[in-house]
Amino acid sequence: MEISGHQPAKLRKELNVWEAIGISLALMAPSMAANINPQGTAGQVGRAVPLAFLLATVGVLLVAYGFVRLTQQFHHAGSVYGFVGVTLGPRAGVFSGFALMGTYIFYACVTTMAAGVFGASFLQRIGILAAGDIPVLIPLAIGVIALLGAWFLALVPARDGTRILLTVEAITVALIVITAIVILIRILAGGAPNGATFNLNVFSLPEGVGLNALAVGSVFGFLSFAGFEAAATLGEEAHHPQRDIPRAIFGVAVFGGLYFVVITAIEVMGFGGDAGMEAYVGSGSLLGDLGATYIGPWIGDLITIGAAISAFGCALACLVGASRLLFALGRDNPNTPVIGMAAKVSPKYGTPSGALMLVTALAAVIIVVWAVVFGAGAFDIFLGSGVIGTLILLVAYAFATVGAIKFLFLSGTPRVPMYEIVVPIAALIVLAFTLWLNLSFDPASAGFRYEIVVIVWLALGAALVLGMPGLARRVGERLEVDEGLIAAKS
Helix H segments across 190-240? Predict the structure, then answer.
């Protein structure tokens, strides 16, 4: 069937399950996340960082259920945009896809700035930069260079890009795991640095810390997992999407849970538990500093540069994910100004070059405005973009979960056993609870300003849907005939 004589662009099918895992791992960036994200949690719950990450793991696994079930039925470059569009309607699909695209764009800012922070730290460790405070412009410059490099690599075929991402993450994660094992052995043997001892009180809340703080702290856990579902955007490029994409999503979620909970527990114990939390929060590279203390300075250098490379790989995955989402929207609306540009596919590489250019440019504008207008440094942009991106992400996850409930259980004969409905319902409760507890009602707080940005982005998505009624109609027509959104036959 043809819509208005328009032949939709197609992406090349060339990915296997390991390459799909690569894009999700790269966007989750476990190497980078383990070195910096737990510090935000520690500010809320002290030594109970692993407990907060365990809570986040439960929430992510509940959310993963919806993505796994939907990718067993559909494969579409738009991920949430396509899934929600076909389950809740095109208006909801466009809105949720726009939301997830915003998360990926803000996370591109997060990860390129992280690459700048770790890169500058590495240059200082090896003596290229002088000791002391690093000039503000250096991490920013490294971050911008990382963004340009990520754009270039995202333009080449997805097969090459995902191989790079998987290799980088495998090396850096292996290095972190080995370091963590050495730290744990020294702690168990006794006489470890920092007065560290093996103590499972890292899985209990300190006195005076309530469940409210635990829920707020778990947001940094969600930030660490963000991107576990990124393989869903590669559904049209996988050889066996209804088998490989669900496996990739679930496998990465399970791995992330085990990895983050264990690593954060060893980190907190390695710093000395309660007595070491001040040093923990002030560390420039958690595992880098622990590696230097427990093994030697050289391992700290390797972990720091590994974290920088991991951040760069994550930036690449962010641009890949955001460009696929925008490509899907542009392909369904080829005659709409600006949006239609996103439908352009590179004739040489078969990748969405138009969408890639647009999302990269937007990420660059965000970084430049934040730095020039507001005088922010790389770490400030990292922190703010991370909060904004995560709050938007929770909204997108909620839409996908509602869509999964409607499609799987409330559209005629249930497509899976009815008792499984408790899983996505529990996911919605966790998402709503986490969002509510992270709302700030103090206009003087930085959190309130971040929430304004979130509201503005979501309002733009709503305006796109409500202000362009023809767009939703075209999306609906396209979703009905799009090869990627035909439900699997049972």
Answer: 211-217, 219-225
3-state SS class at 13: coil
Looking at the domain assignment, is residue 278 inside a domain?
yes
Whole-number Å distance between alpha carbons of 155 and 320:
9
Sign of CA dihedral 391, 394, 399, 402: negative
Q: How confident is the model at residue 163 (pLDDT cuts 50, 70, 90)?
A: low
Whole domain around residue 71: which residue ranges?
17-414+421-437
Instruction: From residue 151, give the alpha-carbon distance in Å to each of 109, 112, 145, 385.
Output: 13, 11, 10, 19
Integer angstrom CA distances of residue 172 from 19, 116, 149, 195:
17, 17, 19, 27
Q: How far is CA 366 from CA 86, 198, 395, in A?
A: 32, 44, 21
What tokens appear for 154 in the block? Answer: 């995202």
DSSP state letter for 132 = S
Average pLDDT, the chain: 81
Q: Which residue has the tokens 């880098």?
A: 288
Q: Tell whether 317 is covered by a domain.
A: yes
Structurally, the chain folds into a number of domains equal to: 1
Please, is 60 exposed, middle or buried when counting C-beta atoms within 10 Å of its C-beta (0-12, 13-18, 19+)? buried
Per DSSP, 487 falls in state P
pLDDT for 3 equals 39
Helix or strand holding residue 394 (H, E): helix 378-409
**Does residue 468 belong to any structural domain of this protein?**
no
CATH of the domain at 203: 1.20.1740.10
Q: pLDDT tier at 339 (50, 70, 90 boundaries)?
A: low
Contact 315, 146 (CB under 8 A): yes
Residue 6 pairs with which residues in a beta bridge?
A: 3
Neighbouring-strand partners of residue 238:
15
Assign 3 to helix, strand or coil: strand
430 inside domain: yes
Residue-level length of the chain: 490
Which has the closest alpha carbon to 235: 24, 405, 474?
Answer: 24
> By the 8 A CB rule, do 317 and 23 touch?
yes
User: In the structure encoding, which two tokens stand for residue 47, read together?
Assistant: 């030594």
For residue 279, give the H/E element and its range: helix 277-282
The CA distances from residue 16 to 9, 177, 241, 307, in Å, are: 21, 26, 9, 26
Q: In sequence order, what are the residues at sequence separation of 6 or more whose Cβ sits closer than 8 angstroms to the Cβ of residue 288?
A: 35, 121, 300, 301, 303, 304, 307
Residue carrying structure tokens 């050889």: 239
pLDDT recorded at residue 484: 46
Question: In this prediction, what percent of the chain has a pLDDT beyond 70?
Answer: 80
Query: Is the pLDDT higher at 196 or at 81?
Result: 196
